Amino acid sequence: MDISIIILNTNDLKYLEECLDSLRGCGKSRQVEIIVSDNASTDGSIEMVETKFPQVRLIKNQENLGFTKGNNVGIKASTGQYVFLLNSDIKVLGDCIGQMADFLDAHPDVGLAGPKILNADMTHQSTCRKNPTLWNNFCLAFGLAKHFRDSPFFSSEEMYYFKGDHDLDVDILVGCFSCVRRSAMDQVGLLDENFYMYRDDIDWCMRFNRAGWRVVFHSGAQAIHYGGTSTVRKDAVRYTLLQQRSILDYWKGQRGLPAWCVMWLFTFCHQVGRIGVAAAKLALKSGEQQEAKMRLLVSRASLADLFVPHPDPRATRTGPPEVPPTPSSVNADSGGAGH
Fold first, then answer.
1. Which of 92, 102, 188, 329 could bridge to 207 as Cys pair (CB 3.0-4.6 Å)?
2. Residue 316 has pLDDT above 80, yes or no
């Protein structure tokens, strides 16, 4: 098998169907297998795949295994020399799959690659990241990255100054669409299941880099990532707490307690600032009432979790948000890589 495409799905019927539709005829002359690893969906996703896409191999996980374990189940069931991991809210454009495989063929020193990702309005979506440092997280927490968006020096981990107009070796690629060489993966290992979700892509890319494999953004292939949809939209607080905890766990585990303490302080200041801005917008009755309500809800929960952690959000829902979350109100909360 040349290519194994693994799609992780959790109650995301609409986007999963669009994703699978976009993969019809992918890879052209290559041998391609498509595997859906389903995390105990109850929204009809399983029945849709069985009815509309009988050629797709469907793995029915008996519980929500999370991002890393759910993907690893699919990886273990695959046989392709190239393994593609796609979020269910990805829509590939043209022969994106074949183009990415051609790129890996032509660059045998690349262990992990990703295509150019677009938003639903076809604008560039930033997926390239720097390795996390205290400096780039300081720039995020205190607004320097926002006010100097085109400056590499004041950039947060997110490389918003890079417009995705050429191929680039990077430290980290966001894990919404990853193309992995199996021989490289055999060397560095699977996704680390200690990360339920979030920051796993940082860990994985770092392991590829440390093992001598290049991690490359390839501008010659494109896909749409709707982002902030499905389960994240339905429970913004829960998934933001997961992201915040993953960030702090990463710093404690990888950088040590002193660095964790500094990151905790940065996170505290960042959330206090966001609460202040959201409260001001609500008081002034600006035109961003819905977003301000969501930011206030999420940031208050995030701030409280720094002092008195809620029950593990992997197992316990925090309840639906007061208003429907938007990608910006969820994903902008803690920065860094995400899915």
1. 188
2. no
Q: What's the confidence (pLDDT) of residue 168? A: 97
Q: What single DSSP character describes residue 151?
A: -
DSSP 211: T
| Residue 112 CB neighbours (<10 A) | 28
Query: What amino acid is encoded at 75 in this protein?
Result: I
**Helices within 53-169 (DSSP H only):** 66-77, 96-106, 134-141, 144-147
Numbered ranges of CATH 3.90.550.10 in the chain: 3-126+162-225
In CATH terms, 3-126+162-225 corresponds, of 3.90.550.10, 3.40.50.150, 2.60.40.3080, 3.30.1370.20, to 3.90.550.10
Judged against a pLDDT cut of 80, whether residue 285 lies above it is answered with no
Higher pLDDT, 333 or 54: 54
Can you give the pLDDT at residue 330? Answer: 35
Place of tokens 């968006």: 149
Measured CA distances, 304 to 161, 299, 301, 323, 331 (Å): 33, 8, 5, 20, 18
Whether the CB-CB separation of 114 and 205 falls below 8 Å is answered with: no
Number of C-beta neighbours around residue 23 at 10 A: 22
The pLDDT value recorded for residue 232 is: 55
Structure tokens at 331: 């994903």
Tokens 């051609």 — which residue? 102
Average pLDDT, the chain: 87
Cβ burial of 332 (10 Å; 0-12, 13-18, 19+) is middle
Q: From CA 230, how far away is CA 17, in angstroms rounded? A: 13
Geometric angle at alpha carbon 239, from 53 and 91, rounded to 5°: 30
Inter-axis angle of helices 257-283 and 134-141, nearest 10: 20
How much is the average pLDDT of 311-320?
43
Answer positive or negative: Cα dihedral of 195, 200, 203, 204: positive
The SS3 of residue 92 is strand
Gap between the Cα atoms of 8 and 276, Å rounded? 37
| pLDDT at residue 109 is higher than 90 | yes
CB atoms within 10 A of CB 154: 19
